[in-house]
Each structure stands twice: as C-alpha cells, then as structure tokens.
C-alpha cells in the first residue's frame, strides 16, 4: 500500500480500491537495456599526471615579439615580472610539440553573455567561454587523458594541497605571485570573497552552495597564499573533484567586492548580480585569454592575457594563439559553419545534422578532423519532485504529488518509445535508449545495474485507468479522478524545454504525440533564454533537457545525484529555509553519495555509482529518453589537439582539449586574420 495515503490526499483513488501494487502489475516488466556499439576509434592521448603539469621555475621565459615591443615601449612589465616566480609548466610533448605564436581560433556560440559576474551565476555564452574566463581551484577537464596511478584533479589556482592527519582538514596552497589580467595580485582574499560573500550568501545565485561540498563544510584563510577546508567527514577525497569548474572559480575581488551589498551600502543584490554587463570590456580574468570586445548578437573577441601563469617546457608563455573569436549565432550554425570551414570548432551534438555533416566529411577538401566520443549526451525528462519549492496553487500541489508517485512515473516512462524517438532524430546506429542514470559507455554503466522499463503503450493506458485517470468527457485526454482538487480536469502537464537547441525542440514535439497516445496532454513550455533560472524557481511540472557532465562524470556533481543540499538536485529542490521532503529511495541514494564522497579508490566509487544506478532507475528518478554519441570537429590548421579528445567527459571538448596549447603553423596563420592584431587587454 505504498501510495494510499498520498492517493487519498490528491483523490487518485478511493481508499480500499485497487492496491497500489496492482496499478503497475499489468505493465511489461523491466528488461535488459539495449546497448549500442561504440563509435569511438583511433588513438587516445595518455600521459602521466606529473608530466602533464608541473610547477617549476625555468631559466628563461619568452613571449611573442610584438609583446616584447610593448614591454620595450614601457606599456607592460617584463615577462619575468608578469609570470609567477614558479609558473605552471605544461607538457606539449604528448601532442605535436612546441608551438609558434599567432593565429586565431573561431568559435560560435548559440547562447549570449549575461555579464561577467560568474560568481553570481551570470552566463558568459557557454560554448567554452566560461572555461576560458573562469579559472578554478582545481582543473578537471584534462583528467580524461591521464594514465597510471594518479588520475585526479589537476592544479589550477590551487597549486598543491594536503590532508591533515585526521582527514578533516585540507590545506590548499594557491599560486604565489600570480596576477589578474589587469596586473593586480591574485590572493587568498579572492578565494575567501568567493566563498563567504557569494557561495555562502543565499541571496547571490552562485553555482554551488556550501553544503554541496559536504554538509557543514567551511573554508578559512590561513595566509595570503593559503586556504584551509574543514570537513565534517574524514578524508572526503571525492570533494576535490567538485572544486573545479564551475563551482569554485573566484572572480576578481578587487573589482567585485566594492560592488557587493555587504561592502557597499548603495548596492543591492540586483545591482551586484548585474554589475558587469557584457559591454564592460576588457574583462578581468586569470585565464589564457580575456574578453576585449563585444558586439551584441555578432561577436565577442578575446585577446591573450599577458599575465597568464602557464608556460611550455621551453618557457614560452602560453597561450600560443593570440586571439579567440566567438561569433554569436545558433548552436546548429556552429556545426554548419565549422563543417563549411568558416568556423574552427564544434561539438557535433545535434543528431538531426549528423548525416549531412558526415556526407560533407567525405569530400576531399573537408577542412576538419572529426573525433567521435562515447554516448556521453543524454536527453531526459525530469519530473518536479519538490513539494516545498514553487508550490503556489492546489494544482501545483496535486501535480507534485503525482510526480512523487512512483507508479505514475513507472507508467509515464513506459509511454515513451525510445527506439522510435532516436530514429526520428537520426536514422542508423547512433542513438540508444536511455533508462536514466549513469551512461552506459562509462566504467560504472553496467547494463545489469540498469532497470529498464520498455515501451508499453497499452499497458500504460490500462495502468493509468487503474489509477483513476479516465477520459470522462471524451476529448481524448484523461481526466483527474474524482475527489481531489482537480477532479474532472484534463491531465495537462507543462513541459519546459529550451528552444536554443533543435534537438530539444524535435524531442518535445515527438513527446507530445507519444503522450497524447496515452491520453496525457503535454503543454509545451518553450524557453528561448537561459532555462536554469526557471528550473531553480521551480516553475515547471516536467523539464526536458540534455544533461551535461552529471551522468558521464558523476563525481563532479555529487549534489545533482541526490538532495544533499537545498539548492540541488534540480529535479528535487528545497528552499533556503525549507529542506526537501525526501522520497524513501532518496535516503538510500543519499547514503550512497555519502560513501562516494569519502571513497578514495575510483574503482570502488564506480561500484557505488552502479548501486546508485540500480536504485535510481528502478525508481525512475528521471524519465531517461536517449543516449547520443557526439564528436568534436576541429579545423585541420590547429596543432596540439589531443587525439581522442572526448566531446564530453570531465568537461566539454573545448576544455578537455586544452586550447592554450593549440597552435597554427606560421604559413597558415594568414588564412584567418586577427581582428585586433598586436593588442593586449587594457593596454593602449
Ligand atoms: C554548450 C554547448 C556544448 C558546449 C558547452 C560548453 O552547452 O551546447 O556543446 O560547447 O556549451 O560549455
Ligand atoms: Ca478528457
């Protein structure tokens, strides 16, 4: 009688009617999840942790000749004073090798920058912009290429770290003597401002909350170059993975602190969050390039950061490329332009243009390399499980209770014909059905740990009727059962999705037809801007979306796996004052996540993720739809693109490929002229 009390509350069925267990008994039982053949082939870069990056002073350093000219003209300090005394030496031997300076990388983005205050949740246009502009305590993107014993987060603004003997404290040494792109010093004050006044301030819509790093976690400043974490658990090793993009990436406190309401009585949270409009350039960053020009709906230009703290083995300051361009267009156009040679990089992630792109790739003058990755992209429907966040009416209340009913989720998942959905996007062997949870082509995606409920439209209709949902007025849509606040109304469910991606729009359309078949009316709730604020305000019933790293590299986003903090996971949010009412199986998931956090052995973590998968798919924590492989497409003029770079692993391909090492041979540089040659951010 799992759901009787609940059912009575929303009028699903009278007490004493069919037992909850009977509702789904006529549905096809779980069966093995179909597994697809991998599209990955060819070599994959492999390098030891300590070879890829090391902190080391070198006998001398170099820079582009035109930068030296600016130094000579007295516009910029010499290179040795701009670099930290001990810079980060990055390997180039595992790729094509030492590069030459110059050249441009042309990106395209389908999003738009909201502003540069990333600590306050501003989006900077995605597509690899954020991964250039934000630098974080640790770097996770290149982990995919590490081999051997040590496969863990790499240094970025934190140079090194060590655990206390009891494992409750982690001391992090920050890079010493590093500078922001405006030449101001970077220090522990930047990190503390991020933690105290952004992440820990519920009025700032930061990407992470303190509890996401383990309940009760605190951070303290030790000295100008040292911070110390304090954890309730001993040795929460996995937490280190969460200290990178995009949660622990300090912004420049010297600019932002005076704009924050805590330090400025004329400021409001609103003015702080929106203080740095995208027009405000050059923007100040610790990254390899920084934004120097922005033309709305046209282009963003980034130029090399003369204070960037990385060098190659010979002491050449990175990056090699002087300029990055971001044309502002659509995501689909990114692939189209890259395939045609008018842009240089795309994540091929829109199945509806795969076949055409592959046809172009057959042509002898095709300008790009294509590197296929695992089925790392998934689309799913999340059902809003929160009964405390954004519940503003009887309807919201009834809808959330329905979403929280496992029988209902089971019926809904069996309405979806995943094979047909996949084939409608692209015919052929690309797409496989997805049950939700961990991706199959990972260490932890074992088919036997997936509970997959197959398509069964007849069974679903019958089961819905058993729950009391019948079409009493003959318009083809089932009506809510008698007794509840929505009695007699049609079952209309809002489906939130983004219109920025063609794939999401196509899937939404197919779902309307499929659910209509079961008598469920999906009311499309298209969103043409950033969808996350809507998600976070809980103003939705169901949310169709592509998932980023969470189910490909779950250790990065533990808070998205179960309600560890009020601000996550998106499918089940609390509020800053009211925690989530956990569903019974969520307690089991939380226990698993807690074990993952303190498990240092990646193999054992994988085992825990498999257990997680079993429970979450059995309980239909999301309605998984499809798993899709993607490829990165990069123009052939670039050297140092690591073979095997995945479209999405610990990060998207833009960051996994380490763009600061890309270079273009001198004789090819003229093919794409720089828009702002020989200029540096803020130097005239
Ligand atoms: C968007 C794109 C992805 C990738 C990421 C990087 O989500 O769709 O392909 O470029 O941005 O943040
Ligand atoms: Ca009806």
TrEMBL record:
<feature type="domain" description="Solute-binding protein family 5">
    <location>
        <begin position="153"/>
        <end position="544"/>
    </location>
</feature>
<dbReference type="InterPro" id="IPR039424">
    <property type="entry name" value="SBP_5"/>
</dbReference>
<protein>
    <submittedName>
        <fullName>Peptide/nickel transport system substrate-binding protein</fullName>
    </submittedName>
</protein>
<keyword id="KW-0732">Signal</keyword>
<dbReference type="InterPro" id="IPR000914">
    <property type="entry name" value="SBP_5_dom"/>
</dbReference>
<dbReference type="Pfam" id="PF00496">
    <property type="entry name" value="SBP_bac_5"/>
</dbReference>
<feature type="signal peptide">
    <location>
        <begin position="1"/>
        <end position="20"/>
    </location>
</feature>
<comment type="similarity">
    <text>Belongs to the bacterial solute-binding protein 5 family.</text>
</comment>
């Amino acid at each position: 009688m799992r759901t009787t009390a609940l059912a009575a509350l929303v009028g699903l069925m009278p007490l004493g009617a069919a037992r909850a267990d009977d509702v789904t008994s006529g549905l096809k039982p779980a069966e093995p999840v179909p597994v697809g053949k991998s599209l990955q082939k060819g070599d994959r870069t492999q390098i030891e942790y300590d070879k890829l990056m090391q902190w080391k002073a070198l006998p001398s350093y170099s820079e582009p000749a035109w930068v030296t000219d600016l130094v000579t003209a007295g516009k910029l300090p010499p290179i040795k004073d701009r670099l930290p005394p001990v810079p980060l030496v990055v390997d180039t031997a595992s790729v094509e090798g030492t590069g030459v300076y110059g050249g441009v990388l042309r990106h395209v983005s389908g999003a738009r920058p909201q502003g540069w205050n990333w600590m306050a949740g501003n989006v900077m246009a995605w597509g690899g912009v954020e991964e250039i502009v934000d630098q974080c305590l640790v770097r996770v993107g290149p982990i995919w290429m590490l081999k051997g014993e040590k496969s863990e987060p790499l240094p970025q603004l934190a140079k090194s770290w060590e655990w206390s003997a009891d494992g409750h404290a982690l001391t992090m040494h920050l890079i010493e003597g590093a500078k922001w792109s405006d030449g101001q010093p970077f220090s522990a004050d930047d990190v503390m401002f991020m933690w105290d006044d952004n992440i820990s301030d519920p009025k700032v819509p930061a990407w992470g909350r303190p509890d996401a790093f383990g309940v009760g976690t605190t951070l303290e400043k030790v000295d100008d170059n040292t911070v110390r974490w304090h954890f309730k658990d001993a040795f929460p090793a996995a937490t280190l993975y969460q200290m990178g993009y995009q949660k622990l990436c300090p912004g420049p406190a010297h600019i932002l602190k005076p704009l924050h309401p805590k330090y400025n009585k004329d400021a409001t949270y609103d003015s702080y969050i929106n203080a740095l409009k995208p027009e405000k350039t050059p923007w100040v960053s610790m990254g390899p390039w920084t934004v120097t020009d922005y033309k709305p709906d046209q282009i963003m230009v980034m130029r090399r950061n003369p204070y960037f703290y990385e060098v190659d083995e010979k002491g050449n300051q990175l990056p090699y490329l002087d300029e990055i361009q971001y044309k502002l267009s659509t995501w689909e156009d990114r692939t189209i332009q890259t395939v045609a040679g008018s842009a240089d990089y795309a994540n091929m992630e829109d199945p509806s243009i795969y076949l055409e792109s592959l046809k172009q790739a057959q042509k002898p003058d095709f300008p790009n390399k294509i590197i296929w990755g695992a089925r790392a992209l998934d689309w799913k429907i999340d059902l809003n499980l929160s009964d405390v966040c954004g519940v503003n009416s009887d309807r919201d209340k009834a809808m959330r209770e329905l979403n929280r009913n496992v029988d209902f989720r089971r019926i809904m998942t069996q309405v979806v014909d995943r094979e047909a959905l996949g084939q409608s996007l692209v015919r052929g062997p690309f797409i496989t059905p997805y049950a939700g949870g961990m991706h199959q082509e990972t260490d932890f995606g074992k088919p036997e740990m997936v509970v997959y409920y197959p398509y069964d439209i007849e069974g679903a209709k019958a089961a819905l009727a058993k729950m009391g949902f019948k079409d009493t007025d003959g318009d083809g849509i089932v009506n809510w059962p008698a007794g509840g606040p929505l009695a007699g109304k049609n079952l209309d469910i809002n489906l939130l999705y983004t219109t920025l991606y063609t794939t999401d729009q196509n899937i939404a359309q197919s779902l309307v037809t499929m659910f209509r078949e079961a008598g469920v009316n999906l009311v499309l709730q298209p969103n043409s801007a950033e969808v996350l604020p809507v998600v976070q305000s809980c103003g939705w019933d169901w949310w169709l979306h592509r998932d980023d790293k969470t189910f490909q590299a779950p250790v990065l986003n533990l808070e998205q796996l179960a309600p560890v903090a009020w601000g996550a996971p998106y499918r089940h949010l609390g509020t800053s004052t009211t925690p989530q009412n956990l569903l019974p199986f969520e307690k089991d998931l939380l226990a698993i996540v807690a074990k993952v956090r303190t498990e240092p052995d990646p193999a054992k973590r994988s085992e825990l993720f498999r257990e997680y998968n079993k429970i979450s798919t059995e309980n239909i924590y999301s309605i998984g739809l499809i798993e899709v492989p993607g490829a990165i497409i990069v123009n052939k003029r670039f050297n140092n693109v690591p073979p095997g770079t995945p479209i999405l692993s610990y990060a998207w391909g833009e960051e996994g490929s380490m763009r600061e090492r890309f270079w273009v041979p001198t004789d090819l540089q003229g093919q794409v002229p720089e828009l702002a040659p020989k200029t540096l951010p803020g130097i005239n």
